[in-house]
Amino acid sequence: MRTIDHWVGGKPVEGTSGRFGPVTDPATGEQTGQVALASSAEVDAAVAAAVEAAPGWRASSLSARSRVLFAYRDLLHRHRAELAEIVTSEHGKVVSDATGEVDRGLEVVEFACGIPQLLKGGYTEGASTDVDVLSIRQPLGVVAGITPFNFPAMVPLWMFPIAIACGNTFVLKPSEKDPSAARRVAELFGEAGLPDGVLNVVHGDKEAVDRLLTHPDVQAVSFVGSTPVARYVFETGTAHGKRVQALGGAKNHMVVLPDADMDLAADAAVSAGYGSAGERCMAISVVVAVGGAGDELIPRMQERIAGLRIGAGTDAGADMGPLVTREHRDRVATYVDAGEREGAEVVVDGRGLVVDGHEDGFFLGVSLLDRVTPDMLVYRVVVFGPVLSVVRVDSYDEALALVNDNRWGNGAAIFTRDGGVARQFQFEAQAGMIGVNVPIPVPVSYYSFGGWKESLFGDSHIYGPEGVQFYTRGKVVTSRWPDPHTRGVDLGFPQNR
Fold first, then answer.
1. Which of 53, 144, 167, 188 could form a disulfide with 58 if both were Cys (CB 3.0 to 4.6 A apart)?
2. Is the domain of 90 the same as that of 190?
3. Residue 156 sits in a domain of what CATH number?
4. What pTM, to 2 d.p., does this model score?
């Protein structure tokens, strides 16, 4: 059976723990490989490789780092179809969605290519007599990333390109459910000229996570996953003196006012609710229909749902693929059961779907529940599947209260033609990312991604300018040079070295 091994010191390294996790094709339910699960000693070896590589990489010039990143960007672009196929084979999402994931990761690499501009400091000449003051930002050293199953290529690319561009070395622990994409993007970085040991990939479960959180040589940890684990990562990492950014779960609301373009809103709700089988931390989970909006919106959503085609991710005609595991598929179905039992109206029922030729795959059809109330289980939990709840309220104020009373605060969207109300919503809504007639407001790479409340533990959002801040620390230098001198004559053209 195919085994996915670790990547340490610029080469594949076989697991020695004797423990393995299954890797499956969600469309067929068949195990296609196994992934080595690292022991604490194997994590130590990966960290040691990063420690060894750190002095040389930190001493490299910004120009040299930028050249490697540009080469990496080119390789990722040329291998984007291959990477998308890897994602589909282990996660299950359709190839077009997987390609979009790779492209969004590429945008962060492109942002990191501008690291010379991003690391510029400040300088004050003559702060005192013959005294100058300058501020600089320097890398932390060895940093780590722990990434989720739902974006096995994109989320790692949100982390390590910026960390490495800033002069750090990196240890990545991807999800053991679909580990091959992370391994492949690391290999490509090596092909781009990244020195051995600067980026290492170690697969594993809780044992590997705990060792990264407690290892004395790991200076910072980035995490994306569920809220309970995010809280654990934050508390454990900070208790061991580490800088931590831990992004947790979400229950994203999409408020639809009566004046909204209902066709646009229906397109958005169906796309954002069921794309990638709902396995997105920015998926719309709740549509809040204000006034009579629900009566207009739901029939339009039903029309669009009826046209969806569910199948294997490799099926070019499929709009949505399977869920990542059988256990997750079954758990999501129980939330539909609970909603129906508690009085929600099941407008579209995705339970019991069987895809011809893929009877053992982890498929669940899309479900649309109307007249959901905040006390129902399907509203109170993170479903993370193709289940969309509609909550009806009478006013904007009630809709806003639902958004703000929600324990999570990743994203929130409003659909309206009223610019004043939209501006009020972006001011009042308690979420880290706001969409105005945009259902999934994931920021472009030169902003930063992150939520509020129980969607984020720590002070820093991920990638973009806050990513640069997270992976560096500031230093202020005060200097006096009363005796200037020269270093000799050189008529050659000045070059960046």
1. 167
2. yes
3. 3.40.605.10
4. 0.96
Q: Using the structure block, give the residue that is written with the tokens 């029939």.
A: 299
Token readout for 313 is 């991710």
Q: Which DSSP symbol is given to 320?
A: B
Token pair recorded at residue 279: 């396995």
Give Cα separations from 188 to 50, 197, 220, 298 (angstroms).
Answer: 17, 14, 24, 46
Residues 320 and 213 in one domain: no
SS3 369: strand
Give residue-wise pLDDT tens across range 111-158: 999 999 999 999 999 999 889 999 999 999 999 999 999 999 999 999
Catalytic residue check, 166: no
Catalytic pick from 157, 255, 277, 281?
281
Q: What is d(CA 5, CA 13) in angstroms, rounded to the nearest whole number?
A: 6
For 299-352, the pLDDT digits (tens) are 999 999 999 999 999 999 999 999 999 999 999 999 999 999 999 999 999 999
Q: How far apart are CA 202 and CA 50, in angstroms?
A: 12
Can you give the residue range of the structural domain that contains 472? 3-248+455-478
Separation CA 308–CA 320 (nearest Å): 8
